[in-house]
Amino acid sequence: MGVFESRSFKQSNLSKTIKRHPSVFGVPFVLLMVAASFGLSTVTQTRYDMHDQKVKQVTKEQELRLDANRKKFDIKEEYFRLSAAADEDWEPKRIQRPKGLPEWGVPPTEPPSKQ
C-alpha cells in the first residue's frame, strides 16, 4: 500500500488572525456574559417586586378581619355532623304486634287461615 502524500492546508486570513490573537472571540463572549448577567438581574428584581406587591395587597375582608375565625366548609364533615344530630333525638317506641304474632316475634306454628 502506498503512502499518502501530505498536502499543506491553506489557511485563511480568519484562521491566521485567530491563531495570532485568540482573544478576538473570547473578549466579546465574556462581555456578552457580563452584560447578560446585569440585564437578567434587573428583570429578576422586577419579577420579585411585582410578586411582593401582589402579596401585600389587602382585600376588604382582610381589612375587616372577617375571615380570621372562618372555618373552611367541608361537605363530608357537615353531613356527619347533621346525621349525628338526627340520631340523638329519637327514642325507641314499641308498637302493638299484629294479631296472631306472639310477644317475642316467634312466627305461629300454623299459617293463618283465609276467611
From TrEMBL:
Instruction: List all membrane-crossing ranges.
Output: 21-40
GO CC, sorted alphabetically, is: mitochondrial inner membrane
Coiled coil located at which positions? none
Membrane topology category:
Single-pass membrane protein
Predominantly, its location class is mitochondrion
Q: Which UniProt keywords apply?
A: Membrane, Mitochondrion, Mitochondrion inner membrane, Transmembrane, Transmembrane helix
Annotated compartments: Mitochondrion inner membrane
User: One GO BP annotation here?
Assistant: mitochondrial respiratory chain complex IV assembly
Task of the protein:
Required for the assembly of the mitochondrial respiratory chain complex IV (CIV), also known as cytochrome c oxidase. May participate in merging the COX1 and COX2 assembly lines.
The entry sums up its family as follows: Belongs to the COX16 family.
Tell me the protein's name. Cytochrome c oxidase assembly protein COX16, mitochondrial
